[in-house]
Every structure is written in C-alpha cells, then in structure tokens.
User: Fold these one by one.
Assistant:
Number 1:
Amino acid sequence: MTQSSPRLLVTGAGGHLGRRVVELLLDAGADVIATSRDVAKLADLAARGAEIRSADFDDPASLEAAFAGADRLLLVSTDALAEPGRRLAQHRAAVAAAAKVGVKHLLYTSAPSPQPQAEGGVLDDHFWTEQAIVETGLDWTLLRHALYADLLLGSGPQAIASGKLFSATRGRGRSYVTREDCARADAAALLTATGREIIDVTGPAQVTQDQIAALLSELSGKPVAHVDLDAQALVSGLAAAGLPPFVVDMLAAFDAQTAAGYHEVITDAVERFGGRAPQTLRSFLEANRAALAV
C-alpha cells in the first residue's frame, strides 16, 4: 500500500457480503474503512488493519462523520425491509452524505432490472436508490446482483422435505450467482471501476425451477417436483405458510420478474472483475450438500 492509495469504504461490514468484501480488500493490501451500526462485530477486521467506524443509517447525522475521507464507497443495500419506506430513506441519506463529504466514486449493490412500484418494496427501493446516485453527479457503478445461489440453502431443505418446489416463474430461468462471486466482483470494482456503469453480476447459466427441483432430488436422493403456480396462488401459499408480508411481496416480485425474463441476463462481470469464472449452481449445491439435509 502506498501513500497515494485511495481510501475505500464498505458499509454493512458486519453482514455476510460486506464483511467478505472487506476481507478481500485487506487481502489485496487496500486502505479500508469498514462501517457498521454494531462495530463490536468488526473487531477481527480491525485486527487485520481496517479502520472501523460506526454508521447508523437511521441517524443521517452519523453518516457524514462515518464517510469523511473516503475516496471510493461501496453502499451495500440494507436489510430494513419490514417497514415500508425505511430502507429507501436509509439509502438516500447515505447517498447524500457520500456526496456531501466528497466521495469521488459511489458503488451500490442493486438487483436485476429494478423498477418503480406504486406499492413500494424491494425493487422500488433499488430503483429510487439508483436514481439518487445518478443525480449526485458523481462517478458511480451500479452492481446489479442476480439472485444468490446461497438462498437455496434455505429454501432447498423445505422443498426436499415436502417433495415440492413452488414458483410462479412460468418456466423461465435465473442466472443464480454465489455471494462469494458477488463479493469478489464488488471488491474488484471498488478497487478499479471508473466512470459510470451499470454492471449485472450473474452466474454462468440460466437455471429453471424444473432444473433446480431435479438437482435437489439428485443431491438428496428424494423426489422433488416443481409446481408452477400463477402469481396469486403463489402469494396465497406464501402467506399461508406464515411468511411476513414483506417477504411474501419480495418473493412474488422476484418470481414475476423471472417470468418476464429479467433474470435471464448472463454477463462476464464475475470473471472480468473477480478474475475467475463464476461457480455453477450445481457445483455450489454439491459443495453445500450437507446444508440441504433434512
């Protein structure tokens, strides 16, 4: 690391993605600031040389001090989804603080093809956050992560146990990507990206729910069938399963996007930035077979 190295800041460093990005940056010898609302979670990163700062996204006044001196900033989208409007307010406050303190390049972890939605929700949050970033006039990179393969480690065991995998995807595929591959792409983009660019961070292939059901069956040794529902039946089923309304809305929105083909995009972003081809969904699930056990 040289004296002229840019100062790189990562928000949400206590979470899975943010923490891994910080670890990769430290491996690369970067000058890293890691922020979290709970800085006690970051003691190991401090021991490795990261500067630790407290940042409370519900307290906009705290953000300017947290971001001061950073040259390039990765805004990891927050998980404040249960209260409508809260996450968007958090993101807008962070974007405004970054612009005010003189951050030169702002990167953001978004989602595939975000769109404004009258009822709000996850895609609406991402759309308006992206708009706020563009309006700053800063250089920016929008990292639109495909759905995480890691999510199947949560839903997969349920499908194996019941023998049924439900979706409203209408047979369309998704370019599932691992969180690890996203972290590698994000860290490299924070180090090197220039100008203004939208980057879809995807896995290597489109995978349908029929293919996932077959893969879960193969790995578990138990029959799993994909059941393709209409959108309303999916919503009713998710609600009947006791999922919180915001989770029901989020999953339904992702299935609607998938049915419309928005999740079928394939790019070379992981290899371009991360330096290696993205892991296939099969390889990821095989490596995590134990997590699928029921």
Number 2:
Amino acid sequence: MPRKLPPLTALPAFEAAARHLSFTKAAEELFVTHGAISRAIKNLEQQLDVTLFDRGTRSVRLTAIGEPYARAVREALDHLAVATAVATTRRSDTTLTVSTSGGFAGKWLVPRLYRFHRAHSEIDVRVSTTGTLTNFSGDGIDIAIRYGGGDYSGLTSEFLAGEDVSPVCSPRLMAGKHPLRTAEDLKYHTLIRDGYPIDWAAWLESAGVTGLDPNGGLTFDSYTFAIEAAVQGEGVALGRTMLVEGDLAAGRLVRPFEHALKAQSSFYLVYPPDAIRQRKVKAFRDWLFSEMGEDG
C-alpha cells in the first residue's frame, strides 16, 4: 500500500519555521526568501487540509495540530540526515577513530600510542574525547573504550579491566611537618576532587575517617588535571588503578595507604559486531589487549 506523504520539499521550510517561530529566520537559515517559506508552508497546509500556524501581525505560533507535527517532522528529518551521512561517508581503511574519555586518553592511551604507530605505521589514529556517547552511526567512530557496566545493546563489548580507587599524592607529602602516615593525617592536606562517582565522602566513610570535609579542597572537571595537581604536590587525589599506574611506576605519585575501594564500573572495548572484519579495527583491538596483558 503506497504511503500517504506530504509534499516533501515543504518539510524543511516548515521545520525551520516551527523551530524559530519565524518565517524570516527560517528563510535566512535556508537561504531563500520570506515568500518562499510562506508559500511552502501554505502549500503544506492545503495538502494536509489543516492549519499549522496561527499568523499574527509580527509573529507566528504553532497550532495544537502544528506543534506535535513539527516534532514528528524534525525527528524524521534528523533520522534522514543520519541515514544520508552513513550512506555517503566513505571510511578510510587507513584512518582509525577511537572514542574514549579524556582521563583514559590522557593518562593511559596516549602515552602508549607510539607503540601502536610503530607496529602499524600505515594506520593513522584519531582520538575523540568529546564526552558524547558514540552510536557508531554517522559519527565516524570506529571503536570506543567505555567505562560502565558492559551491557551495550547491539554492540560487541569486551572487558578490558576493572579498577580500585585509593588516595595518591606526591612523595613530598610523605615527609614534612604533617607526613601522610594514616588516613587521619588527610586533615592536614588539600583534597583534590574531579567528579568521579567514588568521591572523597565514599572513600573516607569506607576507611572509617570522620571529621573531614569531603567537599573542600580543589575541584577539576578533568581527571588528568586533578592527577597533575597531585603530582605537583598540591594535595591528595583519588587514584584510579589504570589511570595512575604510569605516574606510580615513574615515582611521580605514591599510595600513602593500602585501603582501596573497588569500583562497580569497568573499562570495556566496544564496537559494532561487523567492525572487527576491518583490518584497522582488529589491529587496534589486538594491540590494546596486548598492552593490557603487559600491564598485568
């Protein structure tokens, strides 16, 4: 049975006018005249036999019918735009785009990428740390490293590593007037926070430490910046196993206490099931697991 569709060429004009509530702004966005927008919408209304806009002297507003129709048209156009991008985008066989968090990229991935490039010099790697959860459809992402529960519908998800969380600091804080010997000594030092789910309140409670303000100190949006502040001796941060191992190994950071909290989330390698057939994706996947194995 054939679909009953509206005049498709009128839909972009209607969607833009509905979004701006202005025929003039819609015309500017679409690089057409005000009259072209007006005629397109009038034609659409005649074809549907409904009124989509209440027209005032200097303004327009959507009618009770126009408002839900505008939402439906916008969603349909968005889906069509994504499908068009997927259909027309030719992904390079030699460029691999990896999506991950800024913290994982800065503290674990980037310091090791030279080894991947050395083994696969023909593959150019692009690292995306936008914070937006990729859908692998039209966004150009080939493979992602995600932090969560591992259940990602329709995608292949491979466990990489879990992590523990415990305080870390510069070796300089282990000496001086108030050396860090027990958790209670934290009251003499600045607490560094970064918005991670396991925060100082959770760690202090698990360690049985009371009388400290877990919300004071320094706060960063970036985990990388928070750890760098700890390296510089600005205070004590909560170190995540995978993301501080390099600084610990190099002696830039130390763990003053043994007590650690086990994180509920873990790192996973995520990609569309068919993506593993691509040489660049499989090469990166195998290299990543090899690095994880060397790190123990």
Number 3:
Amino acid sequence: MKLAIDGMGGDNAPKAIVEGVLLALEDFPTLDIQLYGKQQELQPFLKEHPRLQVIHCEEVVESEDDPARAVRRKKDSSMAKMLEAVKEGTADACLSAGNTGALMAGGLFKVGRIDGVLRPALATTLPTIDGQGFLMLDLGANAEAKPENIVQYAIMGNIYAQKVRGIKNPRVGLLNIGTEDIKGNELTKAVFGLLKEQTDLNFVGNVEARDLLENVADVVVTDGFTGNMVLKSIEGTAGAMMAMLKEAFMASGKTKFSAILMKSELKNLKAKLDYSEHGGAALFGLQAPVVKAHGSSNARAIYSAIRQASTMVEHNVTDVMKSTIAKSQAQ
C-alpha cells in the first residue's frame, strides 16, 4: 500500500508531518509513503527508512492562496504533486493538512469523481460522550445541496461506517430542527422522504444538533453550509470548555491540588473531545481516498489521519462506493 503525503501543509509543517509519518511507518509494516515537499526543510526532521521516499518540490500551496488558482498555477507544489501521484496510480491515497479549498479543488480536478456521484462531500468522525463517535457529512465541500446529493452522502457515509469504523448496521440520521417526521424546510423534508422510502439504509429519522454528542446516530447527514457551522461549533465549544476547566482548577491552591489528583481523568477528557484522534476529514465521492488533516495537526493527529487513509485503502472503500452508487443509479 502506498500513500502520498503533503509534507508542507499545515501550521506545524514540516516537523509534525515528518514525525507523524515516521510513527506510522513503525506501526504499519505494509505501508510505503511518498513524502512531497522542500527537501531542505524536510531534512532536519527526517530519518532514513526503507519504506519512505522523499520527492522534492519547489512550491508550496499556502493557506491564504486562492484554491482554484493554486491548483492551476502551482504545479510543482507538494500538494499538486501528491494529487498527481494518486491520479497516475503511483499512490493509493493521499493526505494533506494544508489549504482545505485547494485540496478539495485539486481532488476534484485531478483525482476525479466516482461516476454517478453528483457532488463529493467532506466527512469526519466527531466525538460523543460515550467515546464511540459519529460520522458527519457534508462539512463544507458544498454550501448548497439538493435532496439527491444528501441521499448520496448517506450512502457513502454508511459504507465508510461499515468498512472503516466497523459498525455492522450503521444508524443514519438526518440533521434537522426537530425529530418529528414533518419538521424541517423543503430540503430536509424531501431528503427525509427519499431516505425513508427509497433506500435500504438503517435510517433512524431526524436528529437534533443538541443530541449529536449523545450518540443518537452513527452517520449524520446535512448540507455543507449547516455541517460546517456545526463542526466549528463543536470544535469551539470543546476548546472553550477545556479553557474554563483549566481556569477553574488554577483558581486557588486547593483547586490546583485537585487538578493534580485528576490529571489522568482530565487528560482522558481532552482526548475524548479531540476529534483528530479519529483521523482527518475524508473527501467522499472521489476515485481514490483523499484525506484532509486538521491545519493545526500535531504528529499524533497526522498519524491518525494516515491510519484512516490506510484503512480506507485496505477495505476498498472507494470500490464499494463505486459499485453501490452504480446500483443506486440503475434502480
């Protein structure tokens, strides 16, 4: 199995990328990695490894670059070369913590869509109180969506939950403003009817945003505009909650002593709220796995994203999506 990785993308690149790559190579003996980036910047953190190939690139797609323009003009960038490797078949999947828009545009134009997929979707696993987590999509690949788009998101999310997360019969929920069947706008009402009447998914109906962390569904689907706001809300709330806990525990000598006693529990809580432990955000609906790691990823988060991409390849997630979408189109 071969993965192509953008060594220059993200706030902590290239150090965190290289460290995550080296961790993954130690744990996954069947994995070969092609690392793309500026040789002189990667070199201080590199260690020789028989399954690591470093490919020098002169350019870098920066976070402030216009996505479409970056893909077209920066042809010798680490991100562009990484995507080219997947397109040409010299890599099975790719991963970047860099510019999200550029990665999505590059994935669409270079890797290409699965036949029958109307619009790709960005998906990630978010935390739940019980630690199980749930898959949510679309998280911003498409700000607007038609009912048939969201139905395809549900089909692809169901496959991922089965193949990567190991859930035998995933519960699929539709994000809405109420749990009643009649709730929602024209879009959600139309999606509800299609999911209930025209798919064989384990559709559990509408789910509310306030219940997402209570593990009400294994897969939750919505349009990209709504999904991105929910993602940012969960991320912001988790960060704010940890900050408030830290402030409370640092308030006095007594609370500081309590913090020492609860150190392991607080560490576990922080890990439970950290969705990067589950990997990155995968772009569903493309001809090969394309994974977007969080921009602020540390080495552990990169390792988790590599594990995620490897699992997608190992379980032929893209091929299953292709055949399932083809069957649904034929019906």
